[in-house]
Amino acid sequence: MTLTFRAVISALVLALAACGSPERYAVSPPAVTEKVRISFASVEVRDVSLPSYAAADEIAIRQENGTLTTSSDVLWADAPERAIALELSQNLSRLTERRVASEPWPFEEFAAARLEIRFADLVATTTGEFRTSGQYFVSVRDGGRERSGLFDLSVSFDPKGGPNALAAARGQLILDLAAFVAKNGLR
Asked: Does residue 183 have a pLDDT over 80?
């Protein structure tokens, strides 16, 4: 009887754990359909700076009245700062066909340029828009011209698609940001 009681309790604990576990959503890289020529043979993508709500594991949604809501039941699959830095470096690599990596720089020879991105905003809305704005900085080795610029981008998504649609929109938005920076900051 003790063995049966333990088995029932174990099954109940497993069932409750399964019911209460959050769902995690990964961002898949969208297809790259263009190539962008840049002035650098290699680029290091520094750690990105995100607003606190965008750096959290919970997926934030801006309501029509401007408030941000989150749920501990709906999470990003990876830490957003790490994931976005990796997405940027992978997208830049695919767009430019140059040696691009996020920090720490994994090669012996230093990168020709370093890219830093500071996000002022990175949020989805209940009306079906995923927006980002902020500033990028390009520092150059060997005394080259350093650059900076502002960005303000958005992509649409179907709000009825739920977190999967949000993840796809964020993937497209980071690809669009990588293309924008390649064209405006790395040429």
From this structure: yes
